[in-house]
Structures are given as structure tokens and as C-alpha cells.
């Protein structure tokens, strides 16, 4: 027996003789439709195979050695930049007063438009005018040495801050002009605070409040002379870490807050719950970022409630981390799906073709019998 005869016996797909095969229009239609479906499904399968799948996992966060980056873009609509101060502190007691090394302040008009021919302010600008006299001004007992002079209001305030003494501006000669001009200048402009800062990776807070800040006997104080100030604001952007496109990590973006007309002063509190997030990409370094949820609270200070006008953000970190990992499917899985598509569509198409042929033949026989009768 020849080898060819042996192989023919193993053929599991014997062909029907051409003389016994019948080709019909309905079979051709089913073939065209089924082939189109197979091509479309295989194309979608190829797209799904090329694009990596994102798998989500949850585990205990042990990466506490990273710094926490805060990206901030906030607009205060009716307070000049010279009177806006940004402070940050954490639960360890580490304070970062007047954070300005990575924060820029842009002067705006009351309609929110940038003022022409103004540069972004990177440092806290002194409010008081400089004293042009050549005499040595008094520091009112707060001198750090016998040769120190205080010719401006800011120099007097800095001396009192270093001494950790309280100060009464109305009794300081250098600050009289400042005291008179506050109500004229403070509320004629707006300010956009934009930039980022890095803090310790632990629970903490940061706030935007009127007036320069300093500490006296472990108390955080702002030297702003008005207890009544409206802080209508818009949070253009707030995030922690790098941005990832597929996750909704910025729930405060675009939030506009406006005070009621009968309220003279308010304190805004935002309580943030931060969830550390790791995004592991294929052939790229991992991205350490954060998602957060927020609870908002507003306090009316015009009813003698305790508090300070300002916009306060308090945050705490979750002990759990969310990990998004990109993974590619194996080629074997892709090939198996393609074979399943081809086999399944052709099988269903064969059943439909047989049903159509049988129905058409039965209908044709009935028509012929009707003609004969």
C-alpha cells in the first residue's frame, strides 16, 4: 500500500464531488454576509490585541519615602496678589510659611482678565511703600542688634516675627500709610495662584488666606487688618502627582464658589482623602500619582463664629494603594479567538443556508403543485 493511500484514509475533511454539489443564490448571499462578519470581528479582535489591557489591583502602600507633589491653580476674584499668602504644614509640625519658590501669582482685574504689562509675582511683595528718609527708623523694641534700622512697615513686622511678639499696626509709624491704604487697594484686583509645591508624604494641610503669615508661640497668624473679606474663588486645577488620562483624579477642577450677598466673610474648608495610585506602563517607567475624593464645608464668620477668612485644604493619605498595570494578551489567546470566530460564524452560516435552501425548495414544490391543479 502506497503512502498516499494511507494519508487519504486520514483525511477528516473529504470533499464532495463537483457533480453532487448545488450552488444557490441564497447560499451565495449567506456566504458574503458571513465573510463580512468574520472580517469585521477579526479586525476588532486585532485592535483589542494591539491595545494593552489595564488591570486594577489594590494593596497596602509601602512607598512612603516619596514626596507629595501638589499642583495648584486657583483664582481669587476680589483680593489683590499683594495680600494673598499660601502656607503649608503637615502633621509632624513642619511648617512651610509663605510658600513661594514654586508658586506664581498673576494679577487680574475684577473681571478675571490678566492685567496688561504685569509679570507673574514669585515672591510675597511688601504692601507698604518704602521710606525714602535716610534716618534710622525705630523697630519699637524688637531690634535684633543695636545697629538694626526699621524704615519700612515690612522690616518692623519681620523683626516682630523673629521675636515672636504680637504687633499693633496702628501704633507703628511706618505702617500708618499701609493701614490707611488697605481698604483702597486690597479689593480692587483679583489674583491667580498657580504652580506646585512638594511636601512630606503624610497628612497635612495648606491654605490661601489674606495677609502675610508668621508664627507666635506655635500659633499661626496672618497680619491682615480686615476680619470681613469675601474670598470668591475658582479652582482651575488641583491634583497630587502626575496626571493619568483614563482615571478621574481631579474632582475639583473648574469648581466656582461664590459667597451670598448678605454674608460678609466666610471660611472655606476642603477635606481631601488621597488614594496613592501607581500606573505601571509597558516599556515606560511607572507613574506615581494620586486620586482623591473631597468633602466641602463653608462657614459664615459674620455670625461671630470662630475661624479665619481663607480657603483651607486638609488632606490625609489612605494606607492602601491602587495599581493600574498595562498587560498585553498572548498571541495564543488571540489566535484561539480568531479560530473561534471563523468556526462559529461558518457553522451558524451553514445552518442558516440549509434552512433557507429547504424552505425555498418546499415553497417551490407547493407552487408547482398549485400550478398542476
- Taking all Cα atoms into account, the compactness measure Rg is 37 Å
Overall structural class, as computed from helix and strand content, comes to alpha+beta
Q: Give me the count of strands.
A: 15
Looking at the structure, what is the overall shape? Answer: elongated
Count the DSSP helices. Answer: 5
Distance between the termini: 59 Å
Are there runs of 5+ residues with pLDDT below 50, and where? 123-134
Strand content: 25-35%
Q: What is the H-and-E element order?
A: HHEEEEEHHEEEEEEEEEEH
The biggest sheet, with number of strands, parallel, antiparallel or mixed sense and barrel status, is: 8 strands, mixed
Mean pLDDT: 78
| Residues in helices, as a percent range | 25-40%
Describe the structure concisely for a colleague.
By secondary structure, this protein is α+β, with helices and mostly antiparallel strands. It is built from 5 helices and 15 strands.
Give the helices and strands, then pairings:
Layout: H1 3-9, H2 25-50, E1 53-60, E2 68-76, E3 84-90, E4 95-96, E5 103-108, H3 153-163, H4 176-185, E6 190-199, E7 204-210, E8 213-216, E9 219-222, E10 233-240, E11 255-257, E12 266-280, E13 287-300, E14 310-317, E15 320-327, H5 331-372
Parallel strand pairs: 12-14, 12-15
Antiparallel strand pairs: 1-15, 2-6, 2-10, 3-4, 3-7, 5-6, 7-14, 8-9, 10-11, 12-13
Describe the structure.
With 373 residues, the chain is α+β, with helices and mostly antiparallel strands. The protein is built from 5 helices and 15 strands. Strands 1, 3, 4, 7, 12, 13, 14 and 15 form an 8-stranded mixed sheet that branches. Helix 2 runs antiparallel to helix 5. The longest helix has 42 residues. The chain is elongated and about 120 Å long.
